[in-house]
Amino acid sequence: MNQGQRSRYLKAGGIIAFVLLIIYYLAPQGYSPSVSVPKFPGGNVASDPSVGTQKCTKSYSSSKPLIQYALMIDAGSTGSRIHVYRFNNCGATPELEKEWFEMTAKKEGGSGLSSYKSDAEGAAKSLDPLMEVAMKNVPDKLKGCTPIAVKATAGLRKLGPELSNAILKAVRNRLETVYPFPVLSEERGGVEVMDGKDEGVYAWITTNYLLGKIGGPDKTPTAAVFDLGGGSTQIVFEPTFPLAKDGGMPEVLSEGDHKYSLSFGGRDFTLYQHSYLGYGLMAARENLHKVVIQNLYDSHPSSRDWLEEPVLNPCIVPGMSRVIDVPMGSDHPLGPSVSVNMTGPTSGSAAQCRALAEKTLLKEKECLIAPCAFNGVHQPSLSKTFAREDIYLFSYFYDRTAPLGMPESFQLSELKDLTARVCQGPQSRNKAWDVFESIDGAMEELLQRPEGCLDLNFMLALLHTGYEMPIDREVKIAKKIKGNELGWCLGAS
User: Fold this and answer.
1) Which of the residues 99, 199, 286, 451 is marked catalytic?
2) I need a labelling partner for 489 at 20 to 30 A (CA). Which of 98, 226, 455, 482 fits?
3) Do domains 3-44+51-194 and 196-493 have the same CATH topology?
4) Cβ atoms of residues 300 and 269 within 8 Å
5) Which neighbouring-strand residues pair with 272?
6) H or E segment at 148?
7) What stretches of 345-450 adopt beta strand conformation (E)?
8) What is the residue-level pLDDT of the chain in tens, covering all 493 positions?
9) Cα 367 → chain centroid
């Protein structure tokens, strides 16, 4: 094995770093990991149901506790979420038995750690409602040996090292001084800003583990994952390259940061992954609004009177408007930001909105390793290397489409039709929104979201134009599989 391969396999080992703490509990006497965590207490299952399970009456091995818990907090850009995992050791490997999930209450401007900026203590205290879920559901005698980790994503990445480090320090201090759960050390990544590539790969593991596609020696085709967060978006899939013709060298995945070698469940995987910082849904809104303002500025460079008038934006639903602070950059002639009244057109303009969304993808940027998706980023062709396998979309992909009646499986052409309908607005002559009247909660969802046309157009542009997914490609949306939340948390745990 050459040095490059060795480095990649060591990197892939980081995916199960959190599991190493669990191994501590499972290890035979004499194993000495660097993290010191109290051992699981003993207990008679018959007399103490809190450490028992309906799956079996005793652990697979006398060296293993029958029940163990793990806590993971996803500190996202728009909110924080806790996952409380309960495992049993009825078999040779731990089995996920139950999950409790809770997220911070939504508020204007977001409720993620990054929304607190210089108020590090406020950010730390914002996790208290989540910790109450852990306090309630982890048995008292197991709290002292139930590990917790906090992984922040794109929001803190964009905040900068000074503010983000202060927040992480405050979070660690509060968890260690207020709550009984052991916090993983800094070396183990207990409270940290997670690398974008790990976020995507962890989500891939979660999805394929819950689908039963990994975890054993069978060569089952794996599913791709497309995660759309607030500040970033991730793509991970296992490409299959065609066999070489005429005895030539077979095509393989090009070397680079996008290549992720992973050993899991007795199988080796070579994954393509990329995390696009600045292309999450909230970041996409900012990018698109900035394009609208920049176009107006280019047309009126010597005047700012237009800033006082409603700004026509084809991505705002007709008949709706919203006052929006648009970040322009510290060196922009208009200043770091401008506050404008973004107003929808008189009639639906889905095509014009999609054109703006596609403009933010920077498809024309130089491609150093062909083929590229967008923004100059290399990506193997989905139509050539991942033509028939399952594609799962989650996070905002699910949140913005499922409430409007989209089924669990649909073609991108159906997403295009939904987008066009939403962009027509409630007062359209052809009564485009009538169909939503029969869908529970759909009208409420639409009427509270002037950017509904923008959100769907960006998703369509990202999938079809950005990732170059065929318009007739079938995709699946999901929030849970087998009762467990999708995302990166289970894969990291």
Assistant:
1) 199
2) 455
3) yes
4) no
5) 237, 259
6) strand 148-152
7) 391-395, 409-411
8) 444 444 444 444 444 444 444 444 444 333 333 334 444 444 444 345 567 777 787 888 887 788 889 999 988 877 899 999 998 888 766 678 888 989 886 655 557 888 898 999 999 999 999 999 999 999 998 999 899 999 887 678 778 889 999 999 999 999 999 999 999 888 777 898 887 677 788 889 889 988 888 876 678 899 999 999 888 899 999 999 877 666 566 688 999 999 999 887 778 899 999 999 899 999 999 999 999 999 999 998 888 889 999 999 999 999 999 999 999 988 999 999 999 999 999 999 999 999 999 999 999 999 999 999 999 999 999 999 999 999 999 999 999 999 999 999 999 999 999 999 999 999 877 788 999 999 999 999 999 999 999 999 999 999 999 999 999 999 999 988 887 777 766 666 6
9) 26
Amino acid sitting at position 321: S
Q: How far apart are CA 191 and CA 87, in angstroms?
A: 22
CA torsion sign, 388 to 393 to 397 to 398? positive
DSSP three-state, residue 118: coil
**C-alpha–C-alpha distance, residues 489 and 151, integer Å:** 9
| Element of type H or E holding 365 | none
Amino acid identity for residue 147 in this structure: P
Q: Which residue has the tokens 């793990």?
A: 70
CA distance 437 to 442: 7
Does residue 199 have an active-site annotation?
yes
CATH says 196-493 is which class? alpha beta
> CA-CA distance, 239 to 91, in Å (whole number)?
33
Please state, in angstroms and rounded to a whole number, the distance separating the CA atoms of residues 146 and 133: 14
pTM of the model: 0.76
Domain ranges of the chain: 3-44+51-194, 196-493
- Report the CATH superfamily, name and number, of domain 3-44+51-194: ATPase, nucleotide binding domain (3.30.420.40)
Residue matched to tokens 């997670």: 194
Residue type, 419: T
